[in-house]
Every structure is written in C-alpha cells, then in structure tokens.
Amino acid sequence: MFLIIDQGTTSTKVMLFDLNGKKVDSSQKSFEQVFPNNGWVEHNPEEIIGTVISCCNEIIENNPNHNICSIGITNQRETVVVWDKQTGKSLYNAIVWQDRRTESLCRDLKEKGYEELIINKTGLLLDPYFSSTKISWIINNVDGVKESINQDRVCAGTIDSWIIWHLTKGKVFATDITNAARTNLFNIEELKWDDDLLNLFQVNKSILPEVLESDAFYGQSEALIKKLPIYGVIGDQQSAAIGQKCFNFGDIKSTYGTGCFVLLNTGKNIAYSKNGLLSTVAYKINGEIAYALEGSIFMAGAIIDWLKNNLQVFDNINELEDILKNTSINSEIVMVPAFTGLGAPHWQPNSRATISGLTRDSNKNEIIASSVQSISLQTYDLMNAINEDTKKLFENPLNSIRVDGGMTENDWFMQNLSDICDIKISKSNEQEATALGAASLSALGSQEINDLKEFNVNLYKNKEFLPQMENQTREEIIKNWNKAINKIINV
Fold it and tell me: 204 in helix, strand or coil?
C-alpha cells in the first residue's frame, strides 16, 4: 500500500493505493483561500501542513491491517513558502501560483531585456506565475526576512519542500526536480540552481532546497502516528502525466482542476516554444531525464466555483450538467475568464475577465454555457500553439488528448472540448490520475515495482468523445472567441 499526499490549490487529499493502482481509502480537507489585495492569492502554510498531517493520520488509523510501504507526494507547483529553519514557522503566508502581485517587477525585468536569458535557461517566461519573483517579494517586503537570511535561519521552497520538512521534523530540506524547474531559478539543461538567475532575482542559494530525482528517497516521516519512508515526489501536472501513462515521446495529457494544464512529452530533448508555451522537466527517474512542452490555463474548475459561489446561478454542482444539456450554445456570448490574467499562450497578466455579446434576451444559462465553453476555447488555443511548435517533431497534428481531473466527470464539457478542439478526447477511467502518478513513483522508489508500466494496469477502457459539432458552428464560436480575446489584450 502507498499513502499518497495530493496537496492542491483548494484542498489537501490523501489517498491509499494498492499495488494495482486501486484506491482503497481517501481523506480530504479544504483550507482557506486568502485574498489580501486585488490579484493577490495566499494560503496559510500552517493550515496546509495541518491538513496534510490530519488526513494522513486519519488514513493510517482507518487501515490498521494494511501494510503501508511508503509515502508519495504530489503538489500544487510554483506556490512558495519561506520559513524559519529553527522554529519551522512560516515567515509569511504561502504566495500561490495564481498570485499576480509581482507584475511590475516582471515588467521591469522584461524592459531591461532579461526575458530571453530566462527562457534559454529555464524554458519558462518572465511572469508572476513562477516562484522566483514571489520569493524575491517576500525577501524584500517582509520585515526581518533579510536579517534572518544573514543569520542562516531561512528556508524557501515550493509546497513539496514545506511538507517534507515538516514530515521529517526538519531533517530533510529537499525538492523534486519538476518543482525546482518551475521556479525560474533552475537551469533545465544543466539541472541545477543557476547562479545568474539567483543573482538576477536576489535569492541566496543557501535558502533553497536540495534538488532530488522524482523517485528518490526523501527521508522518514516522524510527524505522523506511524513512521514511514517518503519515496516519490513530483509536481501535480507531471504526476498526472505519469498517471495517464505519458511515458513516450509525443504522449499528451490535459488535466482539468482549478486550472487546466496540457503537457506533451518531448523525450530527452528540450523543445523550446515560439508560441507562448513552456519548456519544462517532465520527470527524472533512475537517472533518466524527460522533458515536456506545457500550456497553463489559470481558470478551469475555478470558473465553476465562481458561477456557483459568486454569481450563485446554481446551488449544487450536480445541477450543472442538466443545465448545460438543456441550453443551446449562443455563439455570440463569449466569456473570457481572465480573472487573474491570461496564461498560455497569451500571457497577459493585466487582462481581466469579460462577458461579451449579451442582449436583452440573454439568460443566466447561456452565461453558464459560455463560461464552461471558455475552458474548451482556452484548450483550443493551447492545442494550436502545440501543433505550431511541434511541426518539425511530428509529421501530423496531434489526434487525441488524454484527460483527467474533476471537470472530466461532466460529459457535456467533454463533448464540447472534443467539438471545439476538433480532436478525440480520451477520458481516464481514474479521476485521480495525479495521485496515481505519485503512487507509481512511490512504488518504484520503494522497489515494490521495477518499472512504472507495472503499476496501475488499467482494467477498464477509457471513455472516448469524438467531434460532432458542425464546422460552421465551430468556426463561428472560434471567430467570436478570437475577437473577444483581442479586445481585452489590446485594451
């Protein structure tokens, strides 16, 4: 058995998997989303580790007869915590990947011509999304942090390192390579923290964790009611790719959670994007590196939360599919969900959400449908960029996407995604693909399996969706989408 921590943007979920990849038990706890200012998003790090320990202990207590071999961790990426290594207490709230407070710093560095350097070394763009400017902001804006760094008392890292530190009671300060690769401080070709980037963002190497392989040993948990070895740590989107068995060059997956993340395995070679995508590390296992192209959308499932909690246009998430099935798509009504700016391939941090094309006849259900369809349209933009970037790698455009995540339970959305992207959608029979990836790494690291392909041999065929929408309708929807996108970009 493998105890898997899936630490996400809105909740922590801990699952117990057997060697066949079957989920045996789970525990989930939500935590507060903190919005101190416009565009700022924070979490309480102590609350996060509290949910991790609580959920882990609950699973251990509920399964006394199961032999748990190891703990695996997968986590929200880019989110950073800075803490005091003597007390283990955070020095500021975790700054979340969605946070946009460092827009002006990114803009200033772009104007000075540093973005090309950053792209060449990290595969990433210069954007508030990534960890470097978040760490820099804490160092320069939180009282006492600089002094504590001078006293060698500060640790800074992504959520995985915060969890590992606390589970091992401060004995291990480490991060996995996929999380390190999302910081804008890590050289993805040389596979190490980069001195030029550290100097640029004014981050001391001494405060950063050791970078380990994805299937490595990360110490022994001492904060739980049972001591267990930690094997296998990986960022959530790379973990989902492993859970979806994207082991081969050309395999592609898209995960629909709070945001949406499309990831294409490019093998041992870095494929640099000319169309607003990210080059990143897919994983490093048994000394073998694999890279990926990735497109990141900030608002996917978060749009559903906004419709339910802010607009209150439906009471229960279970109502959504019925509403969508009984609503005709109005191609004139377009939602651009730039609530925290636009991610790939546009990268417009200052843009804000709009709904266009409304008339006196428009109703709330049409707004709901256009909001959900905006996730499909954002994916369409990513797929266009991927096809442009991979023309030299693949003879033909990609013909299918493997999908997972909470939103894939909605069949209307799955069909709409296939229609808008004009591509076959292969829906995973296991919604917890992200946790499955970490479980397979934990099994590999603890030597319970010899190859990732041995884990989670799917007994059930994935459900497939094929395009059904008429080309004229699809083209009209995309035309109006492009108009709406161009308007907010050019404001």
Answer: coil
